Amino acid sequence: PRLFSTRRLFLGGKNAIYLLILGTMFYAVMLHLPRNFKSREVVESYGPPPARIFCIISTYAYHHGHAAIHIHRTWVRHCDHYLFVSDDIDNHLEPAVFMNMPDKWHRMRAYLEYVYKYHFHQGDWFLYCNDDNFVVVDNLRHMLKTYSPKELIYFGCKLRTTNGLVFMLEGSGIVFSAAALKRFALTALTNESICSSETKGNDFTKELGRCLTNVNVIAGDSRDEFQRHRFLPFDADLHLGSSMNESLENHKYFLDHSYYPVNDMNLPVSLHSICFHVPYTLNIYDLYYFAYKTRIFGVPLNLGFENERMGLENKTA
């Protein structure tokens, strides 16, 4: 009892010195550790979670084996969730099938309504694109950091008609906020005077723009802080190594309708570009390699992203 008395333990000469030394060491360690833990807790607790992106890839039965399958193996796996939509079944792609819909506008209406009904809970933002697009999903997620999925807004390659109707170019990808998709499905599609169900052919994105404008969905500016374009109207090599030609019908259409001025037949391309057309589908593997796998010597790896990427590749394997 005398050996372990509190008087001897705390007031004895040698014990007091040992306790003082241990206490000082413990205090020094604790001063260092809580900072790291606290900073991590702050980031995890207060930092906004990354936007969940649901990707909708429009394809056709005759494209399954030589176009859509290559998207399935590459960039689409960086979406949080994805869905192929087609006119026929496929055991590998497992698309949602919509038969007997030759009109593009009817298909888009059906696709977006279906996604709202059955997949709305899986995304904050919804990307609609074609099976000949390449998308850098991480750049899209970065762009959307400054926006809320509760905003009535959508993005793409922005165009305008002569009478001022704003719409997005077909084939360059269109991104809807969750609020915009909900408003489109519940308010626009249910009112014929707001959103027509008639056939529109190649003008279907014009009707989409009209429908969204009528329900107060804003066409956002998808350019970066230097006013360089992230949703490109044509192939990447055209924008990076050549220029548009007004004698080509699709180039002239874009030049006549571009919402933003085009100088010297060229568009400034963002270093954080998001979506563009791929004329030869197998080039997707080259693009995917350089966008997601190539590392520059001397630049530190983002280990978090690298681990995530390896996990995706293991799933694929």
UniProtKB/TrEMBL annotation:
Pathway: Protein modification; protein glycosylation
Protein location: Membrane
Keyword Cell membrane: no
Topology with respect to the bilayer: Single-pass type II membrane protein
Key words, A-Z: Glycosyltransferase, Membrane, Nucleotide-binding, Signal-anchor, Transferase, Transmembrane, Transmembrane helix
Enzyme class: transferase
Principal cellular location given in the protein's record: membrane
Family membership noted in the UniProt record: Belongs to the glycosyltransferase 31 family. Beta3-Gal-T subfamily.
Name the UniProt record assigns to this protein: N-acetylgalactosaminide beta-1,3-galactosyltransferase
Organism: Drosophila melanogaster (Fruit fly)
